Amino acid sequence: MVRVGLQRETLINASAALVGQGGMSALSMAALADRFGVKPPSLYKHIDDLGALRIALGLRGWQGLAEVFADLGRAGAEPRQLGRAWWRFARENPGIFEAAEWPGLQAEAAVAAARARAEARAERIFEAAGLSGHDAEHAWRALRVLVVGMVHLERYGGRSELCIEASFSRALGALFRGWRRQALD
Hints:
globular
C-alpha cells in the first residue's frame, strides 16, 4: 500500500527543504523517511535511490535557472540584471541551488544538459550586451563564481558586520564596470 502524501514530487520538495536547511550532507533516505514518519524502504516505491533524488534536485535547480534566464532574455535584460536575478533565485531556492552546483552532480548527463541550457540562455544575454565568444564565457564564469561564492559566504562564512547583499552589489558592479573597461582596451 502506498502511503497517502508520499509521492515523488513530495519527496523532491522535502529533499530540497532538507538541503536548504543543512546542505547536501543533510540529505539521506533516513532523514527523508524521518520527516514523513516512515521507514526508509517506503521511499523506494517513489524514488529509485539517493542518487536519483540528488539528480532530481540538481535538474530542478538548473531548469529553474534556465527559465529565469529565458525570461530575462525575452525582457532584454543586461548582465547585471542576470546577476541579480541569479542571486535572488539562489537565496529563494537554497536547496535546489546547492544541488545544482554540487560537484558530485556535474558529470551526470541530465544535470550537465540542463546546465548547458541555462548557460546558453545566459550567453544570449551577454551577447545582447556586446560580449561574445570567449568574452561571454569569461563573463559567465566570473558571474557564476560571484553568485556561488557569495551564497557560500552567506551560508558558511561566519559573522561579519557587513551585509552580504551590499558585498554582492559592490562586486557585481565592479565586475561589469571592469568588463566594459576591458572591452574598450
